[in-house]
Amino acid sequence: xxxxxxxxxxxxxxxxxxxxxxxxxxxxxxxxYTDYFLVCSGNTGRQAKAIHDGIMEGLKREHxxxxxxxxxxxxxxxxxxxxxxxxxxxxxxxxxxxYRLEQLWGEAPARAAVENA
Length: 117
Known about the structure:
By secondary structure, the protein is of the alpha+beta class. Helices cover about 40% and strands about 25% of the residues. The radius of gyration is 13 Å and the shape is globular.
C-alpha cells in the first residue's frame, strides 16, 4: 500500500473511534525515515487505547499489516505506532499540548486528515 493510501486508511480508522483533531504531517523531503506523521487525540487514556486498537485491528483485518513497533501507553498519554512510511501519534489532549508535534514540525505541510474528526 502506498503511503498516501495508508495515512488515509489510518485516519479513517482513527475517526471511526472518534479521534479528535486528526492531522497528517507530510514529512517527505523533511525526514528520511518516514513519509507521514498522523497525529490525533483521544479525550482520555481509554479512548486513546481504543483508537490504537481500531487502527491496529483495521490494518490487520483489511490490509494484513501490523506495526513494526508500538511504544508508550494510554496511561502515559502518548501511544506511538510505527508503520514504516506512516508513524501514528495518539495523545491525550494534555500530552499533545505539552509536546506540540505540529509546531515542532511546522515546516512540514499539514492538513486535517478527516473532516469533523
